[in-house]
Amino acid sequence: MKKERILLGALAAALIGASLPAYASGKTEGDSWTSLPNEVAVNDKGTLTVGYVMIGSESDWRIACNRSIQETFTRENGYSLLTSDAQQKAEKQIKAVREFINQEVDYILLDPLVENGWDASLEEAREAGIPVIVFDREVASKEEDDYVAWLGSDFYLEGQRACAYLKEYLERTGYEGELNIVHIQGTLDSSAQIGRTRALDDALLENKSWTLLDRKEGEFTTAKGKEVMVDMLENYGDKIQVVYCENDNEAYGAISAIEEAGLKAGTSLKDGEILVLSFDSTHGGLSMTKDGEILVNTECAPLYGPLLSQLIGRIENGEEVSHIQYVREEQFSSLAEPGEVTVGEEVYPVTLITDELLEARSY
Ligand code: AHR
Smallest Cα–Cα separation from 157: which of 206, 183, 191? Predict the structure, then answer.
């Protein structure tokens, strides 16, 4: 068994392409795009033990992601799933990797809370011949054979699309004044935070009339999002025109704080409404986007289970796997215009939210 694992690790290393992860900095040449499929790859060659190093349950997105993995890696589908919930603690995740190595699992699925601090654990897994698949967020490792594959979101592009939407919105509504923005960040040093924050920083440099009034960590949760928004409203009151939230849960919290302060989150800046930008596009987030409380919602896709099972299936069959795969995502608004945004040379559609679309959103 041990020997097989080592061979699998060696095979995976041999299959790895030349491209390296981009540290939440977005897709680079040679990386590929994929969509999240629904079909689970059933393993019929004897049960595979999979250790899932989970982050926690901080958001609706995370709950959907965890459920997708639990529903995929079942006994009926040929897997034995061991899950370790790190409850948002990086040390717990590192401990979990070590425990899965000791338990001699066949695969480790790692969704890293933060990008840094993974070198030793990944090396231990490699030495033990256990393939690690990193997904959703990235690790900052530069070693190309530290893990078999990474698949997840282009968080930087998500942020760029959100900022491009804001810019288009301002142009289309003829708004030319100064624009005051507050920013609620996700967990610091997580890829989702790094990419989305970097995109806003770039947009602030590019758009001279945009001012960042304040920036605070909202930990991707509703409670913290509300707490920091209350604080920012106390400090800046109705000077705040835009809230850049790094996920839907932070947006729920921020909107609740805005309402309690007697202000309104909406789509009409000229009527004094506060524009809320959000990420994820969960059912709750899309519903608030449809109602106009969130101006634009940039998707972050969470249902990784089937794609991860397909990847394991390919590795088991000795097939080639892409080292880096970015997941295609959408963007939603309740406004018909702008119907598209441009980032660099690429034009991305913005989908108008309908009742059918909302009904079809399972998470
Ligand atoms: O890593 C994905 C991000 O983490 C999602 O945007 C957020 O909701 C989650 O907690």
Answer: 191
pLDDT digits (tens, 9 = 90+) for 147-168: 999 999 999 999 999 999 999 9
Pairing of the two strands 48-54 and 79-85: parallel
Closest among 335, 331, 215 to 273, alpha carbons compared: 335
Which residues pair with residue 172 across a beta bridge? none
Residue matched to tokens 């499929």:
37
CA of 247 to the centre of ligand 1 (A): 6
Pocket mutation for ligand 1, best pick of 53, 55, 60, 62 (most atoms within 8 Å of C-beta): 62
Q: What is the pTM of this model?
A: 0.92
The three-class DSSP label of residue 45 is coil
Which pLDDT tens digit goes with each residue over 21-63? Answer: 445 556 676 678 999 999 999 999 999 999 999 999 999 999 9
What stretch of H or E contains 154?
A: none
d(CA 349, CA 194): 24
Task: For each of the domains in the chain, give its residue range(s) and CATH number, in order of start.
Answer: 2-153+302-327 (3.40.50.2300), 156-300+331-360 (3.40.50.2300)
Q: Is the CB of 247 under 6 A from ligand 1?
A: yes
